[in-house]
TrEMBL record, chains A, B, C:
<dbReference type="InterPro" id="IPR032466">
    <property type="entry name" value="Metal_Hydrolase"/>
</dbReference>
<protein>
    <submittedName>
        <fullName>Amidohydrolase family protein</fullName>
    </submittedName>
</protein>
<feature type="domain" description="Amidohydrolase-related">
    <location>
        <begin position="191"/>
        <end position="362"/>
    </location>
</feature>
<dbReference type="InterPro" id="IPR006680">
    <property type="entry name" value="Amidohydro-rel"/>
</dbReference>
<dbReference type="Pfam" id="PF04909">
    <property type="entry name" value="Amidohydro_2"/>
</dbReference>
């Protein structure tokens, strides 16, 4: 169950992540950032008793010079005895990620920016615009005409390589194939969180006009989500309507709809997918789900992302468990004589970075 | 593929089961109770040709002093040559279940009561009130005011440790987050089966008022179910509305939505889940699905139940296949060095009984 | 990972397939027929980099006297150097399929007929009437009364052994349990593709009147499908309404809803399922999904089909990967001591041909 050497050495493009926290974490904050729960529940016990919790103790402890499987208490004590910048640098460097595409639009005040993150990791970073966050920023500050002008301008900023929609959190993924007019969208404007389906639809079409690869949060997320409304196949009318534009659409995370996502990435020329957030959340079980995600998706259509947020451990675990799962997938294929070693190398490079470089034109 | 010794020896709390039949079974009845079908179909052949059918021949035959894999005919002949009480005692004792939480509200006339069951097994039992059944009983006998009074009183009976809703069978799991008023609920009263969503919603809120851990049948069941209406994520608005009450909600069975259930148990502080009915139905394939069910659920949130009904074999197979699957999960984790042996022991104890004892305050 | 000898030698009934192309294929056509995409996308790379693409190079190349894992270029060059009839005969003969049930109603002008296919393979063939195609043919040519008369006559043609509906592609699988009247159906008639739910519902009831086993496309298909509308559990009201008629209903493909299909085949006496199209699409990962499909379905309810269309390789890979997956399933069961060798032989025969022979009265 070691990692194949050529997989261990791959440089990664993380095509979807956030920043790391600027400060140390209490145990409560640390545990709640491991998972998608708002807080630890006395009814249910510590989140260290979970796949990701055990993965931290197993894989992260040694990077802080602790024995494998150090206790949660020992781990947090040691972590807090170090400067958070040192902790972050350690895990970021160990991830082997050389390029970060950063969605900086969620809780930016708590987190390092993309540039700071990249600098700490000795890596490159590019910006993913979070569409709903951008609209919320601009709606507070501008007239309708200025809103549209500024939004279009921001989508065309040279540092921006993609856009992201959190429609899943706001309205679910029922996005129509009909493009709303600017007038319709502006009528739906209001202050506060963008929750209007017309506005969200207009934003994603604006991103496509700008030629920006468009990411959708899909499936697994925090308790704001109604999971059955986040099935990616709900996007089918939108995908059908945009198939001819040549602008990539990227389905993020997808668990437990990763098979549906693979289907969409197979049948639509512009659709891609990943396992994102689920990879580190699955801990030692990541390999089985990863193999499921690859059942019917062409290998030129699957990408790596960590969806790490806040804790630097999550970049490291995201990358490590991606490598482990990819290695297990390829080793299994080689053992079954499903493809040649040179094919395995090519598949690995595609998923680690080449698909992302092609999609985002990096 | 043996069972780890510390798993084999665990005492179990079965947090959801029914009673055993009072009488012998014909082959027809036996086969139909193995699965969720109403009857064996001449089009499709014997239900002994199924995962559970083979599990009976493999695991139950030796307890009746037959060789492993005895034929269906030999098995039933031997079984019927013994007194049903003896057969029931044999399988119940062999299950290693020391506490049964019994839903006695389905076909009670055919079955031993919880007390009789426990007595036969040398175990303890507690009552789970089946809400729709209780309402049906009381609606026949009482005025509206008496109905409410008696219902509240029964929910507070000292022998009752939890409530169960079969909304899945009656309306599907679209239960709103808005609590209906007593007047609205009473307006929806009628004789016969409770199928009104307002009444069902009112009943589950009443159970929560009584502080009773609330079980929902989810997913896999008999042909009365429309499976797509039994996705547990349909409960999200209700779960969001009740997250702050501190009353546990338990999602039963869940197959094939066990990943959705694990998600809900992760993000909501009061939500728990099991694999229930599916465990024995899966036979020798139970371990893979069990591992799936544990992908993202915190280990303090997963329980054992057999959902056995009628046939004593189902308690035994439910417990045995749970042990096998738990053992396989832990052995796999240990082989991958995912956690320490002492962690494996703790996880096992949590799922076998400690989570249930905490949730139901046993 | 070899195939158990008694599985390798099984004769197969392919209960759902199409014809093979009459002509050679360009690389573009070949790649697009491997998967369900309309065309290869420059954004996503070659479809040879997929599970099915690697399966062609691994398993099909040797039958054309090339080394295993020959490159895509070498494979297509060699293939085009041979006569297409020779290529088709080679793969059809190697499949071990002795009886084909052929849906000839999709792009018949490009394909060999069922009779030609069977002749090439030294096998038998029978006709599956594609209901929507039949209605489209007849609606162009007839008055309403003639339409009904001719349709009923064609459904009773001696060569026809079953009917198939592509409701999944036209309306999704929400088919009501209420039978529409002939008058209602005829009011919904129009020229062009049959997309009216009343007409589709009437057609499937007509097929049942004729006593024809009724196939439904379910789940995974091309981009015309909205996948969430192809969940087979949406058919529940229709299945409940038809459970007493004694006419088999067959759920095809089902991926990623194969567990839902297994549930329906368990609880309804007349429902059967397969993994169809998904088997070859999954390539070296077919065995895991096949095992999932068999979790709760009685073994008398699961059939083999290739759903091959156009490329003769797909019959061969469909049959080969079915054998591999069935062998892996049985070998795993034998290793776990889940059933006896004689049981394994019986299960294999049921799924390979006996279930199909019983259902279609062959």
């Amino acid at each position: 169950m070691g990692i194949l050497p050529f997989v261990a050495e791959l440089g990664l493009i993380d095509h979807h992540c956030h920043g790391v926290l600027r400060t140390d974490s209490t145990r409560e904050e640390f545990e709640s950032l491991l998972l998608e729960a708002d807080a630890v529940s006395p009814l249910g016990g510590s989140f260290f008793d979970s796949a990701i919790g055990f993965a931290v103790r197993r894989w992260c402890a040694p990077l802080l010079d602790l024995p494998r499987h150090a206790s949660a208490e020992a781990y947090l004590e040691r972590r807090n005895s170090l400067h958070i910048t040192e902790v972050s640098r350690t895990f970021l460097m160990a991830s082997g990620i050389h390029t970060f595409l950063v969605d900086g639009g969620f809780q930016p005040e708590r987190l390092l920016s993309g540039g700071e993150l990249a600098s700490l990791a000795g890596a490159d970073s590019h910006e993913i615009v979070r569409l709903e966050h951008l609209a919320e920023e601009l709606s507070a500050a501008a007239s309708a005409a200025e809103f549209v002008h500024e939004l279009r301008s921001r989508l065309r900023s040279p540092s921006v390589v993609g856009a992201k929609s959190v429609a899943a959190y706001r309205t679910g993924l029922v996005i129509s194939g009909e493009r709303p007019s600017e007038a319709e969208a502006l009528r739906s404007m209001s202050s506060g969180p963008v929750k209007d389906p017309v506005m969200i639809s207009w934003l994603v079409w604006e991103a496509m006009d700008a030629g920006l690869p468009l990411q959708f949060h899909v499936g697994y997320g925090d308790s704001d989500i109604d999971l059955h409304r986040c099935d990616p196949s709900l996007l089918t009318p939108f995908l059908r309507a945009t198939a001819g534009l040549g602008v990539p659409v990227l389905l993020l995370h997808n668990y437990p709809f990763h098979r549906q996502a693979g289907y969409l990435a197979q049948v639509f020329p512009h659709v891609f997918c990943d396992l994102g957030l689920a990879t580190h959340g699955l801990g030692h079980q990541a390999s089985r789900v990863f193999a499921e995600a690859l059942e019917i998706v062409p290998y030129g259509k699957f990408l790596f992302s960590s969806d790490a947020f806040g804790l630097p451990e999550l970049y490291y675990l995201g990358a490590l468990l991606f490598r482990q799962a990819l290695s297990d997938f390829l080793a299994d294929g080689l053992r079954r004589d499903a493809f040649l070693e040179e094919d395995a190398h090519r598949i690995a490079r595609l998923m680690a970075s080449e698909n992302a470089a092609r999609v985002y034109k990096l």
